[in-house]
Every structure is written in C-alpha cells, then in structure tokens.
C-alpha cells in the first residue's frame, strides 16, 4: 500500500551469550592491576587539548578473556543489559541476519539480509542511534553516547581537542575507531612536516633578493640584452629574457638549497610516521582486545554472495565440512576479464594525459603569440608567461578529467570485483583496494610525473626540434626551470581534490537529508520515531571507510612523492586533515545511519601501500632535485666553471643558455618577422651546446656531460643515504612498546591462572 513498515529486532541475553562464544568475543575477567605509565611532565601544558576523563575512557581498563557460556561466573557481569557494548550487540545481530535462512529455490537455500535487501524485500537494515545528536534522550538509562560524541568530537570548534577513541570504538566498533586513530596520528605527525616545510618556504622567501640567477634575468643590462629564440614555429617572435623576471623570482621560493634538505627530511619523516604508527597500533590492539585477532571470523566467513553463486562443493581440509567453491577455470576467466578491464581504464587515463599534453602543445603556441602581440596583456606578461598560462589551464583541465574518470571507474571497479566473486569479505576489500588504488595512482599522479620527468627533457634545439605526432613541437620549460610548473600542477590537483572531497563529504549528504526530511521534521518526536528519523539519514555503506582511506592515501602520495617541488604541501594537508577529522565525525554522527560495527586489528592492506609509497618517494624526490630543479647545474657551475671568485654565481645564466645562429633556422621554424634584425638567439631552456662557430656546432659540450654525471651521482648518493637512515631508524624503533608487551604477558598469565583455578574448583565440587 505504499507505506513503510519497520521491524525492530532485539537480541535477548541468551542469544548474545551464545553468539559471543561463536564470535570469540573477549570480555572482562579482572581489573587491570598494572600501574599506568609515569606521568608526562608536559601534561599540564597539554591540558587544554585534553577531553574529560569520562569521555576519553568511558569504561575502566580490564584484563579480558574469550567468552564461554558455561563459565559465566568467571566474568565481571554486573548488569546483563550493559555487559555487551552497543557495537558488540549490533555486530552479533548483523552476524545472525547475514546467515539467517528464509526459504529455498530450486533446491538451493536462500539466506541472508543482504539478499533480501538486493531483491527489494526490505529497503534497509541498520542499527539505531541511541538519541538525538543535539539533545539528550528522555530515558534516564540512555547513555547518550551519540550526544556526547557530537558535543565533544563532531563539532569544528573542538578541532584542537584529542579524539575520544575509546568512545568511538564503543559506539561504532573497532574498524571505524582504528580509522580515526590513524587519521588523528597522521595529522599529528603532519604538524612536524608542515613546520619544517614552512621554514624551508620562508628561507626561499627571505633569500629571493640574494638569488643571482633571477638578478641576472631581471637586470636590463644582462637579461634585457639576451634575445631568446621563439616559443613556437613561424607565428612567435623573438623576445627578451628579462620578460620572465617575476616568474624566475617566484621559482626561487621552491628551487633553493632548502629543497634538498626538505626532500631528505621527508624521506626520514615518512619512516618515523610509519614506525611510530606501528607502535600506536600495537597499543590499540592491546587496549581494544585485538591481540589474538588475526582476521575476524566474520571477515573469514564465506560471503553470502559467494555461497549463493557457487553451486559446486568440496571438503574444507581444515573444518572437514563441505563448502562451496569456484572452479579454477571459472576463476581464470573472471581474472582475465577483470585484468583486461583494469588495463583498459589505465590506458584510458594515459590516453587522456596525452590529450592534455597535446592541448598544452597546441595552446602553448597560441598563448605565446597572444601575449607577444596583445598590448593589454603587457602589464602582466612578466608574471603570466606563456609557460605558466599553459600550465595553469592544462592543470585545471587535467583536474576536471581526473574527477570524471574517477566517478566512472568507481562503479566499474565495484562491478568487476563483484564479478570475481571473492570468497571472504577481507578478500573482497583487498581486491577492490588494489584496483582502486592502482587506478587512482595513475589518474592523480600521471600529470605530475609528466611535468617532473618528461616535460622539457626531449625538446631538441632550433632547426632540429622534436615533434609529437610530427605536428606539435614538444614543450620547453621556463628559463627559470620546470620546478615552478610542477609546483603549480601539484597545488591545483591537490587543493582541488581536497576542496571537492569536502564538498562531496559534507554538503551533499546534508542537502540529501534536508530534502528527505522536509515533510517529517516538523512532527513531534512521538510521531517521528527514532527508527523513522534514522531511516531518513544517508547510508554509510560497507565501502564507506574504504573511500576515506583512499582519499587520505592519495593525499599521502602528494606530500611524499613530489614534496621536493612544494614544501608547503604538508601544511596544506595538515589544514585539510584538521577539517577532515571534524567533517568525517560530523557526517558519521549527524548525517548517516549508524554503521554496522566490525572489528579490525590494523589499517589492513593500506599499511603495505603506504610502505611502498614511502620507498618510491625517496626515488622520485631524488630525481626531482636532480633533473627537475636547477640545483645540480648551479652547483657544477659554482665549483667547476665559475670565473668570478668574488661572486661565483655571476655569469651562470649566460653560461647555461646555448647560442643559436638565426640564419640556421629551417623554413618550418623560422619566424615570419625579425624587425630588429637579430643575428643570434638563445635556447629557452637550460642546454649546453657548442656555439655555431665551433667545429662541433650545436652538439653537447663537456659541461653537459659533467652535469649529467653529477645528477646521476647525486641520485645514487641521496638514495643510499636516505635508505640507510630509513632502515636504521626502522631497526631502532621496536614495533611494540615494552609496557604493552608486559601487559600482554600479564593478561595471558592471569587468564590461564583464573581458568586453571576455576577448573580445579569444578573438579573439587564433582569429587
């Protein structure tokens, strides 16, 4: 009849204790008697950041043991209604619902709430929030945990406060708790990287006036007299080097000696972050009773979809029970289709990147011609060079393409992972994670890799330029170097992604909820019940956390893989993450139905991805400093080619720009006009070629080979130094803190002792 009916399920004590044993849930047996750690002398300074003790630790610390129905007197059961936490209760109920049979079809059992949701029998299945988020419940027995979370955690004005992780775990479960623990720890560690990055940026800012390269470029007697070769074929004119004065000054902000220090620092910082996170994770594993938990039974249990779709059965060698399986041939076919699909979409990204490069090449000539020939653009031509104008517009276009491809691929990735029919929930998540990460890695970083390592490296020289598809002349870097363009690309993609992500996460759910509740929100609460209110909220979904991790790991890539080009990247990430924690907590507490609780002992496969990116970041930053920045050519000139002892860097610009005789231009490249009858022009980018009057005309000089050798030597030395320090730091820092090891041993000893004494008592009673 078009009405919605609600079925409210309650789990009585008998059901809870039966399934607590099935799920091996750990419960309290004795209060923790190990004294807490020595007080930190800085605690009084950190007091403003602390939350009230009742919020931070809603329950005392206990030693725990797996629940057994037959040994109930062992456990500290004070009140049956509160003995199992809300997250434990909803996990037990969900476990039952996902395996509950409801009929047969063609001899096959039909079971599980997921199947009933898929076929439309039910429209939703969700645990209830315990009260309104903005006010306490009328029931005096209600814990009002949602209200507490909102007041103490989910409001932006609490951004400087620590997170109530124990309360988050109690209300939402360990899986969501560990995500917020990781995000909070990552944000804390970013503070150090942001401070050092800001200092490096300020160093560049304060030494701008001392930069000899930009001084020479801006000097009318030097840069004003150096005539540069045209930026494009035929249409572009000759121009003077000092027109790039402002961009060369800004380039020094990021291309200075502090860049090298910061690249090495970030290589060590990322190791400290990962190692200290392992220690933090080990502490949480103990505190949240996850020490003996390898993969939750619920995760290792066969997915209902797997059981429904796999008709063939074989004996499980461990359980000796018949269970469904997918034949090898079927698996192989599915993997082939899946692999081909992923490969196709990765190829699509590369094709779209090539399209953006073609756009850059085609528009570059247009910008160059426009800026030279349009008088109204003359006032800003110093700041907005053709290279920079092309880079900014191409970066914006690239960002739009990235977001469109992301939107499409998300749906494809879920479809092909479903098609593979993974056996367990853990397997499903890991497969989807690898597919999505591979795609997003190529999607987000390909343009940065192009600017960092390919742009301006294969240009040729006047008369022998390199062309893409034999039509578009390859791009040249700005005379100040390619690093400023990499910075521009990184800033636009990273900042754009963060802004768009926050809009998607906060504004979209709020608008959807506002629209969905427009009719009901004026009703009194006795007519608009808790389950109806929750029904009108958004669904967090099984992959809700997956997208949160993916967003943060992609950001982690931006601040590690390309950080040598943009020391302010960690500061941007820090500001975003302070907002991200509160946006995620706000939407989870106010805009979404309460998710089904799940256990997790770590951040899972994301840990391996972060480790891989940490190693790759050392290599990429070494290559950026060597090949993208102008540091190595300047050092080689300083120590080997400088002729002025009083000012070793003077003459560097003149030394680094090769000379070309205009009469050697072929018709294809020659500008239509040369009103001032210039005889020679200089190459736009750093290149070291013999002059036209030399017997080895336009071939590379020995200085070119010296610089190349220095670049390769620098990469090898920097990589080895950073890797040695990384591995030494990792070896020095134990993964599990000493006090946690002691507590784990104490708990195991006590559990065995209590169980042994209990068995002895039972034996005496029987005798």
TrEMBL record:
Membrane topology according to the record: Multi-pass membrane protein
GO terms for cellular component: plasma membrane
Localization, UniProt: Cell membrane; Membrane
Domain (Anoctamin transmembrane) ranges: 168-747
One annotated GO molecular function: chloride channel activity
Ranges where the Anoctamin dimerisation domain occurs: 2-165
Secretion signal span: none
Keywords: Cell membrane, Glycoprotein, Membrane, Transmembrane, Transmembrane helix
Segments crossing the lipid bilayer: 179-206, 257-277, 342-367, 387-409, 436-453, 553-574, 712-733
UniProt similarity note: Belongs to the anoctamin family.
Record protein name field: Anoctamin
Origin species: Cathartes aura (Turkey vulture)
């Amino acid at each position: 009849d078009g009405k919605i009916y609600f079925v409210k399920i309650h789990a009585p004590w008998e059901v809870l204790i039966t399934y607590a044993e099935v799920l091996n849930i750990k419960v309290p047996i004795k209060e923790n008697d190990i004294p807490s750690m020595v007080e930190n002398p800085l605690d009084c300074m950190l007091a403003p950041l602390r939350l009230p003790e009742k919020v931070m630790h809603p329950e005392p610390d206990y030693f725990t043991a797996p629940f057994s129905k037959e040994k109930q007197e062992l456990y500290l059961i004070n009140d049956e209604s509160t003995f199992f936490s809300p997250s434990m209760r909803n996990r037990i109920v969900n476990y039952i619902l996902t395996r509950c049979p409801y009929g047969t079809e063609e001899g096959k059992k039909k079971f599980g709430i997921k199947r009933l949701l898929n076929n439309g029998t039910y429209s939703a299945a969700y645990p209830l929030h315990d009260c309104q988020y903005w006010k306490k419940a009328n029931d005096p027995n209600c814990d009002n945990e949602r209200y507490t979370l909102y007041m103490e955690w989910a409001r932006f004005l609490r951004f400087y406060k620590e997170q109530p992780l124990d309360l988050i775990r109690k209300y939402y479960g360990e899986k969501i708790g560990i995500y917020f623990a990781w995000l909070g720890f990552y944000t804390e560690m970013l503070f150090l990287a942001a401070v050092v990055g800001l200092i490096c940026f300020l160093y560049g800012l304060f030494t701008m006036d001392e930069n000899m390269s930009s001084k020479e470029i801006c000097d009318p007697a030097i840069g004003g007299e150096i005539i540069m070769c045209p930026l494009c074929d035929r249409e572009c004119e000759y121009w003077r080097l000092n027109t790039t004065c402002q961009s060369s000054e800004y380039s020094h902000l990021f291309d200075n000696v502090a860049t090298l220090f910061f690249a090495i620092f970030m290589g060590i910082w990322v190791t400290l972050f990962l190692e200290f996170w392992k220690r933090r994770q080990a502490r949480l594993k103990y505190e949240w009773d996850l020490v003996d938990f390898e993969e939750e039974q619920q995760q290792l249990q066969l997915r209902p979809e797997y059981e429904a779709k796999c008709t063939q059965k074989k004996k499980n060698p461990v359980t000796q029970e018949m269970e469904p399986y997918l034949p090898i041939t079927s698996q192989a076919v599915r993997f082939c289709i899946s692999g081909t699909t992923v490969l196709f979409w990765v190829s699509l990204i590369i094709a779209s990147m090539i399209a953006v490069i073609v756009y850059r090449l085609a528009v570059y000539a247009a910008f160059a011609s426009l800026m030279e020939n349009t008088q109204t653009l003359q006032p800003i031509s110093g700041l907005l060079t053709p290279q920079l104008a092309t880079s900014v517009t191409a970066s914006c276009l690239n960002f739009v393409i990235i977001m469109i491809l992301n939107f499409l691929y998300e749906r494809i990735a879920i479809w092909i992972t479903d098609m593979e029919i993974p056996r367990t929930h853990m397997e499903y998540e890991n497969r989807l994670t690898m597919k999505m990460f591979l795609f997003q890695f190529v999607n987000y970083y390909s343009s940065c890799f192009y600017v960092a390592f390919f742009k301006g490296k294969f240009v040729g020289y006047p008369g022998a330029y390199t062309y893409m598809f034999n039509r578009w002349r390859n791009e040249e870097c700005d005379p100040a170097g390619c690093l400023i363009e990499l910075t521009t690309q990184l800033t636009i993609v990273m900042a754009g992604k963060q802004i768009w992500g926050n809009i998607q996460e906060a504004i979209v759910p709020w608008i959807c909820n506002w629209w969905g509740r427009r009719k009901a929100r004026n009703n009194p609460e006795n007519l608009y019940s808790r389950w109806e209110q929750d029904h009108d909220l958004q669904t967090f979904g099984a992959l809700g956390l997956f997208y949160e991790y993916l967003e943060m790991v992609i950001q982690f890539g931006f601040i590690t893989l390309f950080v040598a080009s943009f020391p302010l990247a960690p500061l941007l990430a820090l500001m975003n993450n302070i907002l991200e924690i509160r946006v995620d907590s706000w939407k989870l507490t106010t805009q979404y139905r309460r998710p089904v609780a799940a256990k997790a002992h770590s951040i899972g496969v994301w840990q391996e991805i972060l480790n891989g990116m940490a190693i790759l970041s050392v290599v990429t930053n070494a290559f950026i400093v060597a090949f993208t920045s102008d540091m190595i050519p300047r050092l080689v000139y300083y120590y080997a080619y400088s002729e002025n002892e009083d000012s070793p860097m003077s003459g560097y610009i003149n030394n680094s720009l090769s000379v070309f005789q205009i009469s050697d231009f072929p018709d294809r490249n020659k500008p239509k006009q040369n009103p001032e009858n210039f005889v020679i022009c200089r190459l736009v980018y750093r290149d070291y070629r013999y002059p036209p009057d030399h017997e080895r005309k336009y071939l590379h000089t020995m200085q070119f080979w010296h610089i190349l050798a220095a670049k390769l030597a620098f990469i090898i030395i920097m990589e080895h130094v950073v890797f040695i320090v990384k591995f030494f730091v990792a070896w020095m820092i134990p993964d599990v803190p000493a006090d946690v090891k002691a507590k784990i041993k104490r708990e195991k000893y006590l559990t065995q002792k209590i169980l042994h004494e209990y068995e002895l008592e039972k034996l005496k009673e029987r005798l």
